[in-house]
Amino acid sequence: DAEITQSPRHKITETGRQVTLACHQTWNHNNMFWYRQDLGHGLRLIHYSYGVQDTNKGEVSDGYSVSRSNTEDLPLTLESAASSQTSVYFCASSDGAGGSEQYFGPGTRLTVT
Amino acid sequence: GQSLEQPSEVTAVEGAIVQINCTYQTSGFYGLSWYQQHDGGAPTFLSYNALDGLEETGRFSSFLSRSDSYGYLLLQELQMKDSASYFCAVDAGNMLTFGGGTRLMVKP
Question: Rounded to whole angstroms, what are the CA distances from A61 to A39, A77, A102, B28, B80?
Fold first, then answer.
């Protein structure tokens, strides 16, 4: 069965360190997205990609970067982790326009100390 | 940009009907989606309205009025397992902007 996975599921890191969160999907979807979820803010879009070599900034992209070298993977990098980046991070993918169902990964809980 | 408003919390009794409203302001609009998220879980897709009117999927229905920038999710025959957070999301092309979510508590 097709799926979308994230790793690690939990991560504790120190302020200033670089952190990379992995996202891998086997749906063969062109569109991939990274969101962060904090209490009271719902899901906020960080970066998204419409295909290989394509990346775009979302609503809260400062301090984050992504790269898309193949269809299956969209890793999210925190260049220099800050306590404000403590959050739950969700990766999602879809095969069509915005209204198309987005399939979400299980999430990564990141704590920056 | 986009902004969405939905109630933060709703409580209802098992077997009842509940309506979760969503109003939005957006510079680009293609449709309105709804997602469900149980505590500790990932969001899952419920419905999508691109046109005005009511879409029904089992116990869940979703309504859209583009002229009023308004939509709602209707849950019928509530079950305990429906206790979750519900998010409306504006489709602005190839991306979604989510509301803050409505936490639904279903009581016996």
Answer: 18, 11, 20, 20, 37
Q: Which residues of B touch A45 (CB under 8 A)?
A: 95-97
* Cα A67 to Cα A29, B64, B93, distances in angstroms: 16, 36, 21
| CA distance linking residue B46 with residue B21, whole number of Å | 15
A109 touching B, CB under 8 A?
no
User: For the segment A67-105, what is each residue's pLDDT rounded down to a tens digit?
Assistant: 999 999 999 999 999 999 999 999 999 987 667 789 999
- Res. B28: pLDDT tops 90: no
Identity of residue A23? C
Q: How far apart are CA A42 and CA A40, in angstroms?
A: 6
Q: Any idea how long chain A is?
A: 113
Separation CA A59–CA B90 (nearest Å): 14
d(Cα B9, Cα B67) in Å, to the nearest integer? 26
Instruction: Provide the 8-state DSSP code for A73.
Output: B
Number of helical H runs and strand E runs in chain B = 0, 11
**HSE toward the beta carbon, residue B84, CA cutoff 13 A:** 19
User: Mind telling me how many Å the CA of B19 is from chain A's nearest CA?
Assistant: 19
- Closest chain B residue by Cα to residue A39: B100
